[in-house]
């Protein structure tokens, strides 16, 4: 398997020549982290056997959220937290996509534009739930920002996983919709477009290029929601391209595979510097939260979601006691290893 760290080392110079003037501080930080992740010279943890005193050094991961090596644990934790909020109702995956004419302003004003996209998508769903004659209550959503399409081109959009129901807090009454239907996509698109214009006006964002009248919103049923959560959870903390999808590095060009909208395997080949630039375009601004919970699924609404689960007679799982990590064993005598140095710099890992 080709390692991204090796491609960074090989093509970083080419990237600087082609796009050095476009690299943001967040891009350089991500590049540096992914280039040293679990490599010689990276920080290491030293362990020693309690029996034979044999020592080993284990390289630290870089911990960057754009690195395909790292954040697997954090991704799984997010999925488990959202599973604990699942309700026995139908769920919908609603995707809000902005026109191509807005991509330039998204790139130039990333923090403002991404934040506005997430908030506007939620406000659109919330307004529909409050006015819907069958709901008229508080709805919830998990929102996840994506900045790429399947070819990894720059394509900002947001996915919302929404339970098809709302809670009337005053009456403590749960109301849901007819199976297979939540909100009309065309109406969602028109309201989303209007709210986006209002949000741009408030922020002082101006666009010279005229925008199309028809915007695209997709609203489809995803069953009980768990599969959609797992699907989105894969992309939260582990970069946009798994290393297993990088299939070739030959004569200065890198090839990677992906699945198109029809599920057919496709291959894309780019010069090494352009390949790195393709990945870096999806690095988010520092400390920007790409996943947010809204309404009754918000982190501060734990009592509310528990009340809804009681109304719907959800059998809540018994909380498990925290599990201790299995001890690391010595490769020579199988004795238990203990940490004697949590972080050492610039040392070659010793794994035997």
UniProtKB/TrEMBL annotation:
Domain called Transposase IS801/IS1294: residue spans: 140-300
GO molecular function: DNA binding; transposase activity
Record domain Transposase zinc-binding: where: 11-98
InterPro entries according to UniProt: Transposase_32, Zn_Tnp
Any Pfam family matching the protein: Y2_Tnp
Coiled-coil residue spans: none
GO biological process, one term: DNA transposition
UniProt-recorded name of the protein: Putative transposase
Native source organism of the sequence: Cyanobium gracile (strain ATCC 27147 / PCC 6307)
């Amino acid at each position: 398997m080709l390692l991204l760290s090796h491609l960074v080392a090989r093509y970083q110079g080419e990237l600087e020549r082609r796009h050095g003037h476009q690299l943001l501080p967040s891009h350089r930080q991500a590049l540096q982290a992914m280039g040293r992740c679990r490599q010689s010279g990276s920080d290491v943890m030293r362990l020693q056997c309690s029996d034979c005193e044999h020592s080993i050094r284990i390289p630290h991961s870089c911990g960057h959220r754009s690195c395909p090596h790292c954040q697997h644990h954090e991704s799984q934790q997010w999925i488990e937290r959202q599973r604990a909020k699942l309700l026995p109702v139908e769920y919908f995956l609603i995707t809000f996509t902005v026109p191509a004419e807005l991509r330039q302003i998204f790139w130039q004003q990333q923090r403002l534009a991404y934040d506005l996209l997430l908030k506007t998508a939620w406000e659109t769903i919330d307004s529909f739930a409050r006015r819907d004659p069958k709901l008229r209550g508080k709805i919830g959503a998990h929102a996840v920002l994506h900045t790429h399409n399947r070819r990894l081109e720059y394509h900002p959009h947001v996915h919302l996983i929404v339970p098809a129901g709302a809670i009337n807090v005053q009456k403590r009454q749960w109301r849901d919709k007819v199976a297979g239907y939540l909100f009309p996509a065309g109406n969602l698109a028109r309201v989303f477009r209007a709210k986006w214009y209002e949000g741009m006006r408030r922020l002082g964002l101006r666009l010279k290029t005229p925008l199309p009248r028809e915007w695209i919103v997709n609203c489809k049923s995803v069953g009980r929601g768990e599969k959609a959560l797992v699907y989105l959870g894969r992309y939260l903390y582990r970069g946009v391209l798994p290393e297993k999808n990088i299939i070739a590095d030959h004569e200065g060009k890198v090839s990677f595979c992906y699945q198109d909208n029809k599920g057919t395997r496709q291959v894309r080949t780019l010069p090494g510097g352009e390949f790195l630039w393709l990945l870096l375009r999806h690095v988010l601004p520092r400390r920007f939260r790409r996943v947010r919970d809204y309404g009754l699924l918000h982190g501060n609404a734990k009592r509310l979601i528990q009340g809804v689960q009681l109304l719907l007679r959800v059998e809540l799982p018994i909380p498990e006691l925290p599990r201790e990590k299995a001890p690391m064993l010595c490769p020579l005598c199988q004795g238990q290893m203990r940490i004697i140095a949590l972080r050492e710099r610039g040392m070659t890992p010793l794994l035997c």
